[in-house]
Amino acid sequence: MKTILMVVGKTTDKPFAAAIQEYVTRISHYLSFNIETIPELKGTKSLSESEQKECEAKLIRKALQPGDYIVLLDEHGKERRSIEFAQWLQKKMSAGPRRLVFVVGGPYGFAPSIHQLAAEEISLSQMTLSHQMIRLLFTEQMYRALTILNGEPYHHE
User: Fold this and answer.
1) SS3 assignment, position 53
2) Measured between alpha carbons, how far is 133 from 135 in angstroms, rounded to an integer?
3) FRET pair for 125, CA 20 to 30 Å: which of 30, 74, 76, 137?
């Protein structure tokens, strides 16, 4: 199973980018994992929030493949503790979708059409966090989940 973190726009903050890459490297020791970047929209000042979300939705849909198990990282999604996320991940890995795709939307979130495509939504926090921070938090939690599943001492409960 391939696992993908799909994000809208590049990670521009260098310390965040370096930390994210460190976790991507660590995750890759356990499973096929990569980050796919959807290009950030240009000239959005003339677009409403809903128009911008719909333009991003078209790009997201174009990047998805048939059979993808789509999980949105959204503030309204289900929150899980790290051990619960690890158990959830193990079930998904056992169920065997070809690609498990986690998606971080643009600055205004997701268009309704993307919510409809998603099998699930996960929240990393009820607080509002920058999209760059979400990328770092998610990759760290993915690494943590994999160390939990492999009985390694990274996580302390």
Assistant:
1) helix
2) 5
3) 30
What is the spatial distance between Cα 122 and Cα 105, in angstroms, rounded to a whole number?
A: 13
Residue 92 vs residue 40, higher pLDDT: 92
Dihedral sign, CA of 28, 69, 62, 73? negative
**DSSP state at residue 4:** E
- The partner residues of 72 in beta bridges, in order of sequence, read 103, 121
With pLDDT > 70 as the criterion, what percentage of the chain qualifies?
Answer: 100
Q: How far, in Å, CA of 129 to CA of 104, rounded?
A: 12
Which DSSP letter does residue 65 get? -
Alpha helices (runs of H) in 4-128, residue ranges in sequence order:
14-27, 49-63, 82-95, 112-117
**Domain parsing of the chain, residue ranges:** 2-40+49-149
Q: What is the CATH number of domain 2-40+49-149?
A: 3.40.1280.10
- Cβ atoms 72, 114 nearer than 8 A: yes
pTM passes above 0.70: yes
Q: What is the dihedral of CA 2, 81, 147, 3, to 10 degrees?
A: 10
Q: In the numeric block, which tokens belong to residue 33?
A: 């994992």
- Average pLDDT estimate for 60-72: 96
Q: pLDDT class for 107, splitting at 50, 70, 90?
A: confident
Kindly report the length of the chain.
157
